[in-house]
């Protein structure tokens, strides 16, 4: 079918293996590795790359243009993104439009971070001016306390218990066991989940996304330039973004995805029932449920039934293990799920491959102000028939 995004193709998605620590590398090193992997998979030469987008918390004081110099490219299009968990899809939207309008022909989007303990503390205490001004003096320890309160509210609203959220964590760990790139692959039982130390009630250790080091890359190019030896390119059927700082006054049980869902499905010419696999931003299990509900995957409001579909793999969600088991490599977290969707549609997910996956959805959610995230977006990708 015709799409608003015709003329631009998603060529490939790659991931530098995530690790708990990477003392021998800088953030720039990890991003450069992702760039090299992207070139190898796409078949493009660095001299053909005329667009670069970068999302990173720890690349500073460098920016995208500094990475371009380091990589030896001279882009006509260059972008720094600061939207956290919404960065990847935001950059993807801008890259596609740049290709469609002739601003660039081959764009590589990079995201990633390398953390030490001091880096992470700096990030959570100075995430934005609001965090530094209002939350840091409280010594709240970062986002765990905010999402603990959100989880409490969500559980009361929908009558859920700890084991319901735990079922999601166990399901994602099972997927991670099939993903050699996931950092946390040790089998996890519901009893393990329930017995884990509390972090911020009701959140336990396995509810909180683990911080790792790594990087990802996605290549977007003019469709007629895609190399014949490369993997079959993917097409964007729909892409919608929502920036809504005003909802800090709400209860947090709805994201910007609820406001864009109708437009997304209309643009895609599809419904939630047509989607073969989903990558949803999962810094906490409650956010998985909220986003899926916002996007229409629980139209009757029965979240326990939705959880059962995920646990049985009737609905393949976060097939890489998601951030909760693969790890959250800073800004790369925004691209991790997108890369997994690309891999699934290109038939490169190995033991976790979803049979005959043709349509995939990836979502982003990020930039917590002082209560909730300010950005949300989603993309529907399609594998063309053979």
SSE run: EHEHEHEHHHHHEEEEHEHHHHEE
What sort of overall outline do the alpha carbons produce when their principal axes are compared?
A: globular
Q: Which strand order do you get reading across the main beta sheet? A: 1-7-4-2-3
CATH architecture label name of the largest domain: 3-Layer(aba) Sandwich
Your description of this structure?
The chain has two domains: 8-115 and 212-225, Thiolase/Chalcone synthase (Peroxisomal Thiolase, Chain A, domain 1), CATH 3.40.47.10; 119-209 and 234-383, Thiolase/Chalcone synthase (Peroxisomal Thiolase, Chain A, domain 1), CATH 3.40.47.10. The strands form three sheets. The protein has a five-stranded mixed beta sheet, sandwiched between helices. The protein has a four-stranded mixed beta sheet with strand order 8-11-10-9, with helices on both faces. Strands 5-6 form a two-stranded antiparallel ribbon. Strand 10 and strand 11 form a beta hairpin. With 386 residues, it is an alpha/beta fold. Helix content is 36%, strand content 20%. The model has no long low-confidence stretch (mean pLDDT 93). The protein has helices at 27-42, 64-71, 87-100, 117-125, 129-135, 143-158, 162-176, 190-195, 257-268, 285-294, 303-311, 322-326, 333-345; strands at residues 8-19, 51-55, 77-81, 106-113, 198-200, 203-204, 213-222, 234-243, 277-279, 359-368, 373-383. Helix 7 packs parallel to helix 11 (303-311). It starts with 7 loop residues before the first strand and ends with a strand. The protein contains 13 helices and eleven strands.
